[in-house]
Amino acid sequence: MQKISAGELKKKIDAAEDFVLIDVLGKESFDAKHIPKSINIPSTEIGIRSMKELPDKNKEIIVYCASRECEASPNAARKLEKLGYRNVVDFEDGLAGWQDAGYEFEGNYS
Asked: In terms of pTM, does the model score above 0.85?
């Protein structure tokens, strides 16, 4: 499984590269705080929603969760790979790593 750093992810977002960024945490967490340009598909719904919402199995997909200690994004990445997605990347530092790097979030957090 490929990995990506906060700095590399920020460059991809700023360059408007063609990839899908997925927050695999629950809807409440996503609504409160998420990385810009991300969509929410909770890890428990990957098999159900990914086939419909992510039809291109060659497109780069980057997943993230709360932090390096969180297992949701690596589990989601493995699920996606088992479903035949060929370009899956885990941003293993997640929301905590994004915040530590000093980058902005979207959402209704205060």
From this structure: yes
